[in-house]
Prior knowledge:
- The first copy, chain A, is of the alpha+beta class.
- The two termini of chain A are 43 Å apart.
- The mean pLDDT of chain A is 97.
- Chains A and B meet through helix 6, helix 7, helix 11 and strand 34 of A and helix 6, helix 7, helix 11 and strand 34 of B.
Amino acid sequence: MIFRYDFGAPLDTGAVIRHIPAEKGVPGFFDVSREGEKIRFSIALSRDDMIFGLGQNVRGINKRGHLYRSWNSDEFHHEETTKSLYGSHNFLVFRRTEGNFGVFFDDPGAVEFDLGYTSADRAVITSENGNLSLYIIPGDSLKEIVRSFRRLIGRSYIPPKWAFGYIQSRWGYASEEELRHIVHEHRSRHIPLDGLCVDIDYMEQYKDFTWNSSTFSDPVSLNRDMKEEHVRLIPIIDAGVKEEPGYEIYEEGLERGYFCKKADGSNFIGAVWPGRSLFPDFLREDVRRWFGRKYHALLDTGLEGFWNDMNEPALFYSEEGLEEAYRQMDMTKGENIGIDAFFGLRDIFGGIANSPEDYRRFWHDFHGKKVRHDKVHNLYGCYMTRAAAEGMEEYDSDKRFLLFARSSCIGAHRYGGIWQGDNTSWWSHLLMNLKMMPSLNMCGFLFTGADIGGFSNNTTEDLLLRWLQLGVFTPLMRNHSAQGTREQEIYRFGLQEDMKNILTVRYGLLPYLYSEFMKAALGDECMFRPLAFDYPEDDLACRIEDQVMLGDQCMIAPVYEQNARGRYVYLPEDMLMVRFRSAEDYDLLPVKKGHHWVDLQLNEMPLFIRRGCFIPLSRGAEWVDAVDFSSFTLIGWLDDEASYSLYDDDGCTKGWSLEAGIRRIEVSKNGDGFCARGKELALDPGGLLG
Amino acid sequence: MIFRYDFGAPLDTGAVIRHIPAEKGVPGFFDVSREGEKIRFSIALSRDDMIFGLGQNVRGINKRGHLYRSWNSDEFHHEETTKSLYGSHNFLVFRRTEGNFGVFFDDPGAVEFDLGYTSADRAVITSENGNLSLYIIPGDSLKEIVRSFRRLIGRSYIPPKWAFGYIQSRWGYASEEELRHIVHEHRSRHIPLDGLCVDIDYMEQYKDFTWNSSTFSDPVSLNRDMKEEHVRLIPIIDAGVKEEPGYEIYEEGLERGYFCKKADGSNFIGAVWPGRSLFPDFLREDVRRWFGRKYHALLDTGLEGFWNDMNEPALFYSEEGLEEAYRQMDMTKGENIGIDAFFGLRDIFGGIANSPEDYRRFWHDFHGKKVRHDKVHNLYGCYMTRAAAEGMEEYDSDKRFLLFARSSCIGAHRYGGIWQGDNTSWWSHLLMNLKMMPSLNMCGFLFTGADIGGFSNNTTEDLLLRWLQLGVFTPLMRNHSAQGTREQEIYRFGLQEDMKNILTVRYGLLPYLYSEFMKAALGDECMFRPLAFDYPEDDLACRIEDQVMLGDQCMIAPVYEQNARGRYVYLPEDMLMVRFRSAEDYDLLPVKKGHHWVDLQLNEMPLFIRRGCFIPLSRGAEWVDAVDFSSFTLIGWLDDEASYSLYDDDGCTKGWSLEAGIRRIEVSKNGDGFCARGKELALDPGGLLG
């Protein structure tokens, strides 16, 4: 059962797809209080209560003990105490001694989550605008609660199969020649590769839907040549549109009144990469249709995937903000600038970007009403993603395109994937990558992954290698880095052979990973889960922060500390540890339920398979289309018979179906060993231990 | 044996106290190369080699895998990839398959340590000025290498015994009344307390050696009343001297030419808390004598301790830098500020503080020669500490005063302690606190500790409680926080009872901790050591990053993760785990050598005592002077007889002596139990397990 409670005048955000009639009265779990426009929802916590969810955020899988704020932010330097990242995912699951429940705050504005931060024994959630629908899902099983929620918000986006390949990316790829060179460096060394992301560098002066004609003179040939190498090009599209007379998008948007406007009706000007820019009002259906169709010309060049960026929207400054900053700066001249004045001085320009004032300067037309941006801030990225997705749907309604974005809220999960935002080459961000996977899955975001190796700052080769060992499992597996940082392509490092070997594991596991992804998407399940979901009675398992369940068969536990040669792992049941060095070089070690130290050299990564389960391992390949989805070695620790439901489909159309896509693999005892059967499959039971 | 090699024209930094004649030729361990002024020392690393040392720095006990730069910096927001902190401690210990050695780069300028960062298999150390003495200490035993080094650099600073008590501190204590209130809140709740640090707030307009006469009208009475409560007041002194006609320090320094000067001979003006300020040239003996004597007036009011701050020196801006920033800012007006210009704009004021240009604008008179500041930058803090220490020595040569500072280099360890710099209320900084302890000890800094609870940002009550559980063991145990952050005194939190109980453990262990500190100081040993020092043959132990040896009897392993209810611990030998809730409430659990998960609720902290050893536990008290140093419960896991050498002295004079201070406690089997003997000691063997 799902209960809905309305407060104030909730807007239809588009987050949910099922209509639930609103209850009268207030929800029993919370004390509700008002303070001006704000509404506070307060609940006592016992010492053992835990809180899951909140999607894209820093810190633990258990979110207790910090203050989070849903406010989509270009937080490229996020740390342990950062409150807001790129997405706002207001779904929480409370695991309580007094009864579990899930709760979704369907609120497009700022929402603050004080989860035992101010006071260790209380969670207080505050809607800053006070207009929201609250959905409450009581239940015993955390898995069930999340499944109910996922059905409420609708099926998650499904990308083409090739998008599960390894993608190389960098802000700074400056020309066709450079891209061709990168592909050559991968292919000549047999480093697998399926995609190349191009960042803002391909555009002419950072103008959406343009190519820099001197550095990318022939996109059609480039795309064709790349595809011959089995590599897809994936360009970036930004939210802001350059103010430039004669530039088609600008002129059309201006003429039709498609950009966000100030209270006086004039266009709002904010600056992003191209400098002064205007912002399409994606909350309008006609604007979405217009912007979505702009992708068509790019699709015509053979492109099949895009990433949308800067759609919080990021604002370097506004016209008004810049003027004010100069004014304040001028006032300080000639003063003896002491402590307070000095910090103020630094903040004038340090705080000019993404300022709360600027987000109050412009308005949307949402469902026919004028709404000030800050009241619906967290919807902007979602509706840009929707514009792109609907544009592609219109272009070819049966074809899957790759689409992932930076900013999002719940609802966006139906239109595209997300990456985990602009992270840093920090070991702590490798661990954060792991922790965010189940939290995002709960909120509907299945196609996701972090910038492997880290976006800002310089990576080190051991960090990249260890991060790849986690990236092997994330649906989006992209190595991405920022201009000005150390170049991060695998072939640049002394440890490239180890890295390449780890990539073979990705391609070897691809049939299994694709199968588990699709089953999760089509069944409204989480591909990645906290151990608490699968072992609710095991208090030790419930508090584990550095291991997560992957699919129905596996648990992952990457190494995330520099110079480590192993790690501790807690097994809530007997499992088979596969210690991979490559798809062809691995050890199988049965490990009993309990605490274990496992040795893992720098080139080794573990996968834990539950006893009684097995997984199919393919030989792999250098690109997805070459992976054999019908011939497998089976790996597992079995007592007697067992089975696995392998899902597969054509990977490029939308003709997915759980019924049609499942091929069952059956394993049974055969003397000392096992024999395996599966329709149209070649199966080698050599990796099954009894 | 210690070998010295000179390069360029080394300056006498004062770091070492023994003269070692310089060798001819180059040191065998390194490839040495030059590039302009720079000298590079390069050494190949095998996959298993480890590197210890580097004192105050981020990241691991094993420093391998990062790029560090010795350049004393006011880095109040340090992260995983920060290269420079407040101190420069250029001593490294290489643990190599090809032979261990220690190396000290006695270089007062910038030195870069690329320890397997650019290339995983190579360490490259670069002296930017190329004038240095290199000391090499080959050896098998890491402990021996460090002991040799410590003898080279001389005995570590020893504070008065009361300084081992709990100290409460905050930037923001604004008046006498507030201080009296804080003491009252502690005493009335029986929360132990020995010191109160006052930050810049007590001064009149941030002027050194002044009191704000309206808020601190009667320092003598205040000091007297505090001492009646057994609390010492500990004021801050900053490096910069306010430019203000009529202000004694400014006028005297100006008249006598004691401030650092620019190339043209005029005084260098930089801004710190008071705005425009001048910087005493502490590298001159006469300036040190003058500045050191300024402490006398404060000592006359009854003060017995100080902390020196801002002595990197921190520079908010220089006259010249500010002018240039305004000029650059004005040039951007009216432009369409795109990507590059925007980041440039933010950096104009964002990069104005502590700028490399400013550190090249002023000069010192060092050993009679003019030296540009950047060439000797890392000495400044050390020589300020020395000025203060020598001033106090002159005031009363037999009395111990508390003195600790922010900035330091090796050499400063003889004059005062250091705190670990302006940290943040991050769980990762709790762990960093632990990791820095052995690294600092190797470099001579024994009296040290971090800002418990975290300086910047808001703490949470669980973070403060867990951090106190580590702080129990650090010689400097100070709770400190910044203005504008959440107030952090123990009595403000719901978990205050748990926190108070943890403090009783500090006071109960105080005789043991003081004994181990004094034995380490007088014997040139490390009180805190990596496990690699004590278990060199145990490869697992050598790589442990979250447990350290404490004294000769113990190992510590704090909980440093939010919401954790325990942690993994590796025992390199059998140990007795003491699980403390308070000095009077604890469990004793014998634990066998090997890997273990240990349960530790939020109010519980562990201490591990080596099998065959025991420690004395006192009843504790609410201040140090009330702790009974002669009556103990003995705790340990013994097979037969055992002994402990308890050091004690009067704690306030310099009449320390290992010989005179040791009282031996002898334990022997007595039927099923043990009996204990120790001259003039009352001993209860009730905590000894057989």
